[in-house]
Amino acid sequence: MNRTIERVFRGLPQHWVGDGFHVSNYFPGATDFEKRMSPFFLLDYQKPEHYAPSARPRGVGTHPHRGFETVTVAYQGAVAHKDSAGNGGVIGPGEVQWMTAGGGVLHNEFHEGSFSKAGGVLHMIQLWVNLPRKHKLVPAKYQALTNPLIKEATLKGGQGAVRVIAGEFEGVKGAASTFTPVQMLDVRLKAGGTAVFKTPKGYNTALLTLGGKLRANGSEPAADGDFFLFKDDGDEVRVEAVEDSIALFLSGEPIDEPLVHYGPFVMNSRDEINQAVEDYHSGKFGRLDD
Ligand code: MN
């Protein structure tokens, strides 16, 4: 049975993250999202936007994170990442950076050098995936999910494909290793194509339209930037493409723990936030130059 649509909405007015990412925030902006989207904590969306050529890459300089994971998906353009654990990488269209901040990391995020020099369209999202208490302080790590690593399920009859970033779809397993059950799917449907996603009971489930026009569980046609949140009253989500479409399907087991958020830290208590701030200022997150 289809899950009922709880609401459909668009993100907040765009704001700048550094000078390289002109994003619209979808959550946690709204009031009860901590519970409704857990284990996902934050979603920022950079809709397709043309950036003029720049010799100095635009982006966001060195900053800390603790207590969760940042997941960046590029659809157009290329994003470079570097962190204080010694990891780094570049992702281009279709690719994903999955960084576990865990106990603490410094990183920076810039437009990749040659993309920056040439200029072009950037289209990407960043998600923050929370970590449960027992994994909040794991050592920082980094998964560069390049295109060859992301397996896809081809839908019958040329209806499109589902690229599995995390979790599983029709027997195809996702490339990312996660700390709690998370399903993250890059959905590419051709006009007239349909995909059906099974959603376990209790999992928070949503869909973000990233291009084209589609219907979810019989909705009116949705366009780029429309976000569906589904109730936990059924076991599937059916997506039908009206035009060639791209969407991000998200589903995950909620982390049922207290949550305290302050800037780049997501912890379980106020004391842990204070500790994070202190550890950051005393240099325990390491060192990183832009
Ligand atoms: Mn960051």
Explain this structure to me?
The protein is mainly beta and 290 residues long. Helix content is 8%, strand content 50%. Strand 20 and strand 21 form a beta hairpin. It is globular, with a radius of gyration of 18 Å. It starts with a strand and ends in a 9-residue tail after the last helix. The mean pLDDT is 96. Bound molecules: manganese (II) ion.
Q: Gap between N and C termini, in Å?
A: 50 Å
Bound ions, cofactors and other small molecules, one mention each: manganese (II) ion
| Strand content bin | over 45%
Give start-end ranges of low-pLDDT stretches: none
Basic shape: globular
Question: Based on DSSP secondary structure assignment, what is the total number of beta strands?
Answer: 26
What is the tally of helical segments?
3
Walk across the major sheet and give the strand order: 1-22-19-24-17-14-13
Q: Please tell me the overall pLDDT.
A: 96
Topology:
Blueprint lengths: L4 E5 L5 E3 L3 E7 L5 H4 L3 E12 L7 E7 L2 E9 L2 E5 L4 E4 L4 E5 L4 E7 L1 H6 L1 E11 L10 E5 L6 E4 L4 E7 L1 E2 L2 E2 L8 E8 L4 E5 L5 E8 L1 E4 L5 E2 L3 E4 L5 E6 L3 E8 L7 E3 L2 E3 L2 H12 L9
Q: Any key phrases for this structure?
A:
290 residues, mainly beta, 7-stranded antiparallel β-sheet, 3 helices, 26 strands, 8% helix, globular, binds manganese (II) ion
Provide a quick synopsis of the model:
The chain is built from 3 helices and 26 strands.
